[in-house]
Write a structure and sequence with these properties.
globular, alpha/beta
Length: 322
């Protein structure tokens, strides 16, 4: 059966080859994070499938694609960019790749933690400006051994990061997760009773929670003021979990030592954001899952499920039911 898959961003060729082998073709958008542009393209293409990464997939886009649209695929695990309720109402299957990028995201969080511990942005900027002597006057740089990593969310990625931190760096690991009990974590992570305890006790707080109405803007100045002034915040989950305006204020006032961010409240991050200019903030452009291995696993998983749905078969990883 011939079919068309609309890519809202360039997707790895492994997915394209899977579609071509099944009789389909991929069409890459001429736009990026532009709903109006997507809608015009979808009206023209009338594709059977949409494949996205973090770009918003809205009800208006689904309607523009028309009745041919059978499935929406996400190259990744987080589904907050897709209007699943709208998809379900229209009998459009949503498929994704849970767990396939977990190792890469955990490693990125560890990288950001190391970068914060060594004040990488500040040192790099000073060195590139000709200040080789920056190495002699550094303060608030730390070895990780013996420090405490605090996890907000102890799911798959949190546990992988805990293993890296504890077994690799010799860190203590505490965590808060209302859905888990201590016997499920063994001695890898010590659960604390309240989320606030993580912020009060940890030297590095790493966020690993999904974006939901309950978690949106749940981390802000109140939490930053609980943290040690030498502590750092790591976020490789979703930018909207953090109140970004309050984070910027906290970093400008040196309430905490450093922040390592792979995600931001608006993506792409607007070029006028103060985050770009702060030397106590390390930024990466949502690249935590962008390793070769992670991309291949995610693309293969979601492309196989898209083909299955188009052929009237069950998806291995479906995010909605109807």
């Amino acid at each position: 059966m011939a079919f068309t898959v609309f890519y809202t961003v360039q997707i790895n060729e492994v997915a394209t080859k899977i579609f071509e082998a099944a009789g389909g073709k991929a069409v890459v958008t001429k736009h990026f994070f532009d709903e109006a542009g997507y809608i015009e393209e979808l009206k023209e293409l009338k594709p059977e499938a949409i494949l996205c990464r973090t770009e918003p997939i809205t009800a208006a886009m689904m309607d523009a694609a028309g009745p041919n649209l059978k499935v929406i695929g996400k190259q990744g695990a987080g589904l907050d960019n897709i209007d699943i309720e709208a998809a379900t109402a229209r009998k459009i299957r949503v498929v994704y790749a849970p767990g396939q990028n977990a190792e890469s995201v955990a490693e990125q969080a560890a990288f950001l933690m190391l970068a914060c511990a060594r004040r990488f942005k500040y040192v790099d900027t000073q060195f590139r400006s000709g200040n080789y002597k920056v190495r002699f006057g550094l303060t608030n740089t730390f070895e990780l051994k013996g420090k405490t990593l605090g996890l907000v969310g102890c799911g798959r990625i949190g546990r992988m990061l805990a293993t890296i931190a504890k077994c690799g760096f010799g860190m203590n690991v505490i965590g808060y997760d209302p859905f888990l009990k201590q016997d499920q974590l063994g001695d890898l992570i010590t659960l604390v009773a309240e989320q606030d305890d993580v912020f009060k006790q940890a030297d590095f707080v790493s966020l690993h929670t999904p974006l939901t109405p309950e978690t949106e803007h749940s981390i802000g100045m109140r939490q930053f003021k609980m943290m040690k002034p030498t502590a750092s915040l790591i976020n490789a989950s979703r930018g909207e979990v953090v109140n970004e305006a309050e984070l910027i204020e906290a970093m400008q006032q040196n309430v905490i030592n450093c922040a390592g961010l792979d995600v931001t409240e608006k993506e792409p991050l607007p070029m006028d954001s103060p985050l770009y200019t702060l030397d106590n903030v390390i930024l990466t452009p949502h690249t935590a899952a962008s390793t070769e291995q992670s991309v291949l696993r995610c693309c293969e998983t979601v492309a196989d499920d898209i083909c299955a749905v188009i052929n009237g078969q069950d998806a291995k990883f479906a995010a909605n039911k109807f």
